[in-house]
Amino acid sequence: MPAANSPLPPQEWQPPAPGLVLPPPDHVLSPRTGWTRAHWEAVADRLLDALVPYASPGFAQYRLPGRASWSGAHSDGLEGFARTFLLASFRIAGAHAGATGPLPPAVTERIDSLTQRYARGLTTGTDPDSPDAWPPITERSQPMVEAASIAIGLHETRPWLWDRLPDRTRQQVADWLAGFVGKHPVDNNWRLFQVVTEQFLASVGGTYRQSEIDAGLDRIEDWYDGDGWYRDGDGRNFDYYVGWAMHFYPLLWARIAGAGGGSADGGRVAAYRARLSRFLDDYVHFFGADGAPVHQGRSLTYRFAAVAPVWMGALAGASPLPPGLTRRLASGALRHFAERGAPDGAGLLRPGWYGPYAPVTQSYSGPASPYWASKGFLGLLLPPGDPVWTAAELPLPIEESDTRRVITAPGWLLHGTRADGIVRLLNHGTDHYAPHTDWSRDEPHYTKLTYTSRSAPLTGVHVRDRHLDAHVALLAPDGTASRRTVVRPLAVRDDRASSWYEARLPGDERTYHVTTTSLPYGACEVRVSEVDAPDGVAEGVTVRDGGHAVAGSRAPEVLGGADWALSRRDDGLTTVVVGLHGWRSAGVERAEDAHAFGPHAAVPYVTAPVGAGAARVWVTLVVLTGEALDAAGVARLRTGFRVAVTKDAVHVTVDGEPDRVVPHRISSSYGEA
How far apart are CA 314 and CA 326, in angstroms? Predict the structure, then answer.
């Protein structure tokens, strides 16, 4: 392990997928990643070039291989155009950014070809008589989403594309976009699609309603929970949409409204900038040293779109991050995915995380959905001479020290470890359940106790109902596990986070409340769990606490004892659970084709009865570490943790740390193990 204040060695990176030709790394300008603006341009060009074989004859649709969305192939083709046009627009505008004379001939050829390609698509896509014609914008339809990307792309490339389109094409495009006027989008981040689309129409003399723009901007105020954090609609919906939507679109609206002598509402813009700055102060802690973002929330197939708000901070002059840190974070994330199959050998972004993996998508996702990752290239709008491209890279916070961050609005406690570069998110407030929702839904990307930058929840259809990993479950006699549905936050502070949920078991009308408090200690988490059963406990009910699900291309090695178990990957990544109080047995469950990180997964767990005379409080040591642990390592680790359960509280003593006391939430929780 490095000395406390010594610089960490550069991250060990992997080669990218075949077909992605990159310039040599520059370890002087970018000592952490080696990547520069030229690398970003090379990845963008590879993504855009790879689409051509899938273009429709008029280049208005890109019909990529894969499962169609519920909107149908025609809408999916529009999605392919719109989302890649966003990338193309950043590439086109970025090539001209800061230019004082003609572009180099090779750059001119590429950019002109790209501009003409998308100009042709705009012409045929908005021609009602064309076989390539886009579906119209109707109530709550997918074209609403895609209209926003087209509007942004047209604004950012206006001097080179919109202003040079024939009058007829401009009118066709404006007419198609105006299909948004008077319509009602889904009441979440979709409200902002209407805002940017109609603001663009206003900027070009098209049909729009100022009242709809204002209403959309007013609506997101209802979802702002302070400290830079928005919910995505009603309910406790916190995920990456806060960055790549709720912060992204308002400031792009401001760019459109303020262009060409126009003006955006100064009060709104100042608020958006201040909120984004505060958000980024937290957000920089969500990325591991290897560039991976914490694996939490829906639409994870958008991958490096996660860096969009980081670039937006620089673009809008609203970032607390030094320029070299902004680029290090963004380049680290793009490089992380580029070296793990995104894009793949054909230059495509497939639905998945690294390789193809459908469970990280939604039923509305089509083959081109992953290209919302284009948002991650927003930084290309900053000219090559901007400090974000010229400043030397700076290390991430996790590369300098262990980190811990309280994020109050979503009920999260982040803790990261410098030694292995892993970020862990303790979730005691987010569940993605809207008011009056169907509690039978399963939300594994929202309701787990823990998410990390090196692990993911089990999501295969054949295992997700087991509710095994990162979850304290009650088990019915037939093995059916309770779901952690609506999460009831109790507290989140620097040394702990806690919440409870109502557990339901089939055929059992009793009420069970499961309360868990998570105490972070470096790579470790101590979970103190209680079960309140005021109506008594059904015979045969047990409790189970699951560790992290780790996965890879080969089956993880598993080990265990009477009250502990571990799963270890070939590279040493290890997850461990140790029963510190109340647990009676331990085991490991394997799963195939159920994990975003690889086909072979394994989860350690501990179990105990929940009956008359049994303990109602259990304490578990849960570990995820980059250090390869074996039985001897687990034994050494557990000696540093001591637990005393009294009538009033659980006392946790860890070597070198202040004692922590977790009061019993319920009077019936105390019981001898």
Answer: 8
Strands 574-581 and 617-625, bridge-based pairing: antiparallel
CA-to-CA dists, residue 81 to 30, 62, 85, 97, 585, angstroms: 33, 6, 6, 23, 54
Token digits of residue 175: 């007419």
Structure tokens belonging to residue 580: 């510190």
Report whether 497 contacts 413 (CB < 8 A): yes
**Is the distance from CB of 350 to CB of 285 less than 8 angstroms?**
no
pLDDT digit string (tens) for 536-574?
898 999 999 999 999 999 999 999 999 999 999 999 999
Q: Name the token pair of 515.
A: 């309360």
| 396, 538, 542, 562, 654 from 672: Cα distances, Å | 45, 19, 16, 18, 22
What is the token pair recorded at 577? 């659970």
- Would 37-400 and 406-669 be classified into the same CATH topology? no
What are the C-alpha distances in Å from 99 to residues 107, 194, 445? 12, 33, 44
Distance set, CA 623 to CA 277, 429, 449 (Å): 33, 21, 13
The phi and psi torsions of 590 (rounded to 5 degrees) equal: -95, 155
Q: What is the pLDDT of residues 633-646, one digit of tens each?
A: 999 999 999 999 99
- All structural domains of the chain with their residue ranges: 37-400, 406-669
Q: Is 565 exposed, middle or buried (CB count within 10 Å of its CB: 0-12, 13-18, 19+)?
A: buried
Q: Tokens in use for 344?
A: 């793949």
Quote the mean pLDDT of the chain.
Answer: 95
Helical axes 142-156 vs 248-257, angle rounded to 10°: 50
For the chain, what's the residue count?
Answer: 673
**Using only C-alpha atoms, what is the Rg of the chain?**
26
Which pTM was predicted?
A: 0.96
Tokens matching residue 653: 């003593």
Contact of 502 with 511, CB cutoff 8 Å: yes
Tracing tokens 């509710």 back to the chain, one arrives at 467
Q: Considering only CA atoms, which of 542, 360, 554 is closest in space to residue 457?
A: 360
- CATH number, span 406-669: 2.70.98.70
In sequence order, the 6+-apart residues with CB closer than 8 A to the CB of 393 are 29, 30, 31, 32, 33, 324, 325, 327, 328, 331
pLDDT tens-digit series, residues 576-587: 999 999 999 999
- Decide if domain 37-400 falls under CATH 1.50.10.20: yes
